[in-house]
């Protein structure tokens, strides 16, 4: 093959054009292989886009190589060139390369073989069409026998190229695959020309080319280089943007799972870690201890020395507790001056007791905070798995109950959970018993909190919030009974009541204001949510575009595919879907990519810390910017001051919601916003 190729190149060819064709082939092969590798490392639509880009680069490289090599061919008679076959060669090269690359991106073992066969066929087709563009005073004759080996080279090297790209690491795959592609293209063309002979015919009609060969070849080279450059620049830009997105998501993940003040894991992190420890303990028959650590007199320290001193104290306490922990023990700050410690892999209750004593001893010391000596102490409550609870949601309340007993009896001490401490749990059980009867007795009602345009303050809609008017306990906040309703499944029935009541009320308003209703994850897991919404809209006559259903990330966590399917069906009804409490979950960005939400609602915790925590300000800016980039309006929850409103208006945040605009109220107090008048509102309230 080497002698045949050398002879073909050195005889009957313009060496300058041969060098140009070879250079383009090398650069094109490297560029196409690099873009193809980039496509393989991408997912979803980005993989398809970069596969197409690689096909464009590879196809143009094949076309330019064969066309310029054809220009370099000197058959010994006058030659001109036809445009149509040259353009057909370009189309064939791109199409066949695209098919080959598309097959190659599949994961099956046969993909490189079939892709190599398709690319080899593309080589042969593009080269044949390029040679067909030659026009002479006579005609060409082909030796079919002599064409066999060039075709074998083309198919063989193409298969080797794909095997190398698939089987070797990045740089080695790039080099080996590029070499094989270059070898396949060049051996096909230059050994293939040996099968071509010229039969002169002086009587044949011959039309000279209007453009000199060198100019035609240079134009093809410029086009190819331009395509290579554009695609490679796009690859570099995309990689840079991908790196930026990865870094932003890493930072968001860290902020989501860590406390910004102390750098410790937060509640979300601890819940995941504790759940994993409980599952491991269940498998091996082990025990787990959850220790709730709370500083004594922290509020007084904050009031006397200021919040800065309090923050510094919390950092020192976090460092002190962390220094007492051993391998495998987890520390988290879950709010205020409350810390949680998870201990596993040791005998209980002895292990938790020894740890509690070490922590109390280390914290019962004077701590120097920026020149101020502060006396600290702590109390600890302990709950054990499986004795005191078998889930995260049962262990944490029991540890808190034990902590409360320790503070009541003797500050600076620790207590294990005991069943008689469980007044709170008994109250919960009573609450659950009362709950189902409450719906039958019409004790549940809706309060409505206004939402307004940030710039103008004009009311744009309301969020419906459920309240419980208990005959003995008075008005009960949803934070007290909604978790219980979710735990026992009653939330499905209660949620339908809220949805139907809110839609019926909104349908009666003179103004077509929006109405927002929260959905629980339990509603997605039980019952026919889509059919319920469809039926409520039909019964109430509410325009679906006025109904906005709010979900949190927890809706999507358990079964994302099923949840997304339900959300798509809800969108099909014409209702809007909002992502509530955005920024508090790790996968929020991924869910925005997976589903076209109609609104993003910033969690109130970021707004509350807006002027105290630079991280919160940065997160708010990022979320509003993200919404602007996705063309999704953003609503900020928990807005209580004009300074917060001004900051959000400066960011062009679409809407705000919070006490600054209005507290949740019965609908009778909101009649002026609904198209009624003041007299009517007064009459309703009376």
Automatic annotation (TrEMBL):
Keyword vocabulary terms for this entry: Membrane, Transmembrane, Transmembrane helix
One GO term describing the cellular component: membrane
Statement: the UniProt record of this protein carries the keyword DNA repair: no
Classification via Gene3D superfamilies: 3.30.70.270, EAL domain
Every EAL domain range: 428-678
Domain called GGDEF: residue spans: 286-419
Keyword Transmembrane found: yes
Membrane-spanning segments: 17-36, 48-73, 79-104, 111-132, 144-165, 172-191, 211-237
MHYT domain location: 13-199
CDD domains: EAL (cd01948), GGDEF (cd01949)
Annotated InterPro entries: Biofilm_reg_signaling (IPR052155), EAL_dom (IPR001633), EAL_sf (IPR035919), GGDEF_dom (IPR000160), MHYT_dom (IPR005330), Nucleotide_cyclase (IPR029787), Rev_trsase/Diguanyl_cyclase (IPR043128)
Protein name per UniProt: Bifunctional diguanylate cyclase/phosphodiesterase
């Amino acid at each position: 093959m080497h002698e045949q190729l050398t002879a073909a190149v050195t005889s009957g060819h313009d060496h300058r054009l041969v060098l140009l064709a070879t250079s383009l082939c090398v650069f094109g092969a490297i560029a196409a292989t690099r873009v193809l590798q980039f496509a393989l490392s991408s997912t979803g639509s980005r993989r398809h886009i970069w596969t197409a880009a690689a096909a464009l680069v590879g196809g143009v490289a094949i076309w330019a190589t064969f066309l310029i090599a054809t220009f370099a061919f000197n058959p010994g008679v006058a030659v001109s060139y036809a445009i149509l076959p040259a353009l057909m060669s370009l189309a064939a090269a791109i199409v066949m390369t695209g098919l080959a690359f598309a097959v190659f991106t599949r994961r099956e073992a046969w993909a490189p073989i079939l892709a190599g066969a398709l690319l080899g066929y593309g080589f042969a087709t593009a080269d044949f069409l390029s040679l067909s563009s030659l026009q002479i005073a006579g005609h060409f004759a082909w030796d079919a026998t002599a064409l066999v080996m060039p075709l074998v080279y083309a198919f063989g090297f193409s298969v080797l190229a794909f095997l190398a790209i698939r089987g070797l690491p990045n740089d080695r795959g790039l080099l080996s695959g590029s070499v094989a592609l270059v070898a396949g293209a060049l051996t096909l063309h230059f050994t293939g020309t040996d099968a071509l002979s010229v039969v002169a015919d002086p009587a044949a009609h011959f039309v000279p080319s209007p453009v000199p060969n060198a100019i035609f070849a240079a134009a093809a080279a410029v086009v190819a280089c331009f395509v290579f450059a554009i695609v490679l620049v796009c690859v570099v830009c995309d990689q840079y943007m991908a790196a930026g997105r990865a870094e932003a998501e890493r930072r968001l993940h860290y902020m989501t799972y860590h406390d910004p003040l102390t750098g410790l894991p937060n509640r979300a992190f601890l819940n995941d870690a504790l759940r994993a420890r409980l599952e491991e303990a269940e498998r091996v028959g082990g025990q787990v201890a959850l220790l709730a650590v709370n500083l004594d007199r922290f509020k007084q320290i904050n009031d006397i020395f200021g919040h800065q001193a309090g923050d510094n104290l919390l950092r020192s306490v976090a460092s002190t507790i962390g220094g007492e922990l051993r391998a495998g023990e987890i520390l988290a700050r879950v709010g205020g001056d409350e810390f949680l410690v998870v201990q596993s892999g040791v005998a209980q209750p002895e292990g938790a007791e020894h740890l509690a004593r070490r922590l109390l001893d280390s914290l019962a010391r004077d701590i120097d905070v920026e020149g101020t000596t502060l006396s600290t102490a702590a109390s600890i409550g302990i709950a054990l798995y499986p004795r005191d609870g078998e889930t995260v949601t049962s262990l944490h309340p029991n540890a808190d109950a034990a902590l409360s007993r320790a503070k009541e009896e003797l500050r600076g001490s620790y207590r294990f959970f005991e069943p008689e401490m469980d007044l709170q749990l008994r109250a919960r059980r009573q609450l659950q018993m009362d709950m189902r009867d409450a719906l039958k007795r019409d004790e549940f009602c809706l309060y409505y909190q206004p939402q307004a345009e940030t710039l103008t303050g004009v009311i744009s809609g309301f969020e419906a919030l459920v309240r419980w008017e208990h005959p003995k306990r008075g008005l009960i906040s949803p934070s007290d009974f909604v978790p219980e309703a979710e735990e026992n499944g009653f939330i499905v029935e209660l949620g339908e009541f809220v949805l139907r009541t809110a839609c019926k009320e909104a349908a009666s308003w003179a103004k077509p204001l929006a109405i927002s209703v929260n959905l629980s994850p339990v509603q997605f897991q039980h019952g026919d949510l889509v059919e319920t919404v469809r039926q409520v809209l039909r019964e109430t006559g509410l325009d679906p575009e006025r109904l906005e259903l709010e979900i949190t990330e927890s809706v999507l966590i358990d079964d994302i595919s099923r949840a997304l399917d339900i959300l798509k069906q809800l969108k099909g009804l014409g209702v809007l879907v909002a992502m509530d409490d955005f920024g508090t979950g790790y996968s929020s960005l991924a869910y925005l990519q997976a589903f076209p939400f109609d609104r993003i609602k910033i969690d109130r915790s970021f707004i509350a810390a807006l002027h105290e925590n630079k991280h919160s300000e940065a997160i708010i800016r990022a979320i509003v910017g993200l919404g602007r980039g996705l063309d999704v309006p953003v609503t900020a929850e928990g807005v209580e001051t004009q300074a917060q409103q001004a900051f959000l208006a400066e960011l062009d945040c679409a809407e705000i919601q919070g006490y600054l605009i209005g507290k949740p109220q019965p609908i009778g107090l909101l009649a002026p916003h609904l198209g009624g008048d003041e007299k009517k509102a007064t009459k309703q309230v009376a």
